[in-house]
Amino acid sequence: MELLPGERTVSESSDETVLLTTHRVRLDRGTREFVTITLHQVASCSIGTRSHPILLVLAAVVWLGAFQFAGERMGTIPFLIGGIAGALIVLLYVLSREQNIVIASAGESIRIKTRGMSREACVQFVDDLERAKLALRARSPG
Questions:
Q1: Beta strands per DSSP E along 1-142
Q2: What is the CATH number of the domain that holds 115?
Q3: What would the pLDDT profile of 58-116 be if each residue is shown by its tens digit?
Q4: 68 lies in the same domain as 79
Q5: Residue 13, Cβ neighbours under 10 Å: how many?
Q6: What are phi and psi of 124, to 5 degrees?
Q7: CA–CA distance, 113 with 55 (Å, rounded to integer)
Q8: What is the Cα–Cα distance from 38 to 43, expressed in whole angstroms?
Q9: What domain range includes position 39?
Q10: CA separation (Å) from 138 to 3, 10, 13, 56, 133?
């Protein structure tokens, strides 16, 4: 990325898909996604977890169905199949949970998947973004 006059890099992800500069934040995932938000336009920044709780409901239904079909015989094939299927659905839920940093503006948002990043590293990125935005505001006239 070519920097603007007076712009410098503040932070960059290890895979170089996310770049925070003194003027903007940019997400570049090649042909899949490209979003730039100037720091003046950043309205909010949040750290959260996305999950699919419907998977837990589905696992509970499968387990209840296994108990229903097995009746008093817990060692039967329907009970074992239902128990294993329910456990696999719970595993899918756990594996599909992801932590994200969301940077929003009035018109667009950037969702950064933070797999492998500690919460402290995520908070540090948000702190860097806030500092850069406040420094830009302090330098801007009016």
A1: 9-12, 18-21, 24-28, 34-38, 42-50, 98-105, 109-113
A2: 2.30.29.30
A3: 999 999 988 887 776 767 787 888 889 999 999 999 999 999 999 999 888 999 888 88
A4: yes
A5: 14
A6: -60, -40
A7: 21
A8: 10
A9: 9-48+99-139
A10: 20, 17, 26, 48, 9
